[in-house]
Amino acid sequence: MQAQVACEDCEEGRAMISFLSPMDAILEAAYNSKPPSQIYQVLPIEQFDPRELIEYNSEQLIIFYHYGYAASVIPPQNQLIFK
User: Fold this and answer.
1) Cα 41 to chain center, whole Å?
2) Domain of life here (predicted)?
3) How far apart are CA 20 and CA 67, in angstroms?
4) Average pLDDT, consecutive stretches of 10 residues, N- to C-terminus, the chain (83 residues)
5) Which residues of 54-82 are buried (b: 16+ CB within 10 A; e: fewer)?
6) What pLDDT shows up at residue 24?
7) Calculated CA dihedral for residues 31, 32, 34, 38, nearest 10 degrees
8) Taking a C-beta distance cutoff of 8 angstroms, is the pair 7, 56 a contact?
9) Could you tell me whether strands 7-10 and 13-19 are parallel, antiparallel, or unpaired per DSSP bridges?
10) 74 partner at 20 to 30 Å CA-CA among 11, 37, 49, 58?
11) Which of 63, 68, 61, 62 is nearest to 20 (CA)?
């Protein structure tokens, strides 16, 4: 079975989504695997053959690196925050 890769559209074509952190990749796969979408799995880059994507993008391999997600704290409702 051939692996498919998650991509994002960009001006130059389709960009392969890559992560430096395996944990970020797992979070993205879990978020995008919510029904009714398809199930995503995290694969090492060595297990993906990019030739079809390169051919689709006029002989270019375009990669979007996701370095991480920002964390934020949202206070509970009706709670005062003192600064």
Assistant:
1) 11
2) Bacteria
3) 6
4) 71 86 85 76 82 86 81 59 49
5) eeebeeeebeeeeeeeeeeeeeeeeeeee
6) 86
7) -150
8) no
9) antiparallel
10) 37
11) 68
CA distance 13 to 7: 10
Which two structure tokens, joined as six digits, stand for 46?
């060595």
Phi, psi of 8 (to 5 degrees): -125, 145
> What's the pLDDT score for residue 75?
58
Per-residue three-class SS string for 33-61: CCCCCCCCCCCCHHHCCCHHHHHHCCCCC
CA diameter of the chain: 57
Q: Regarding beta strands 63-66 and 13-19, do their DSSP bridges make them parallel or antiparallel, or are they unpaired?
A: parallel
The pLDDT value given to residue 1: 46
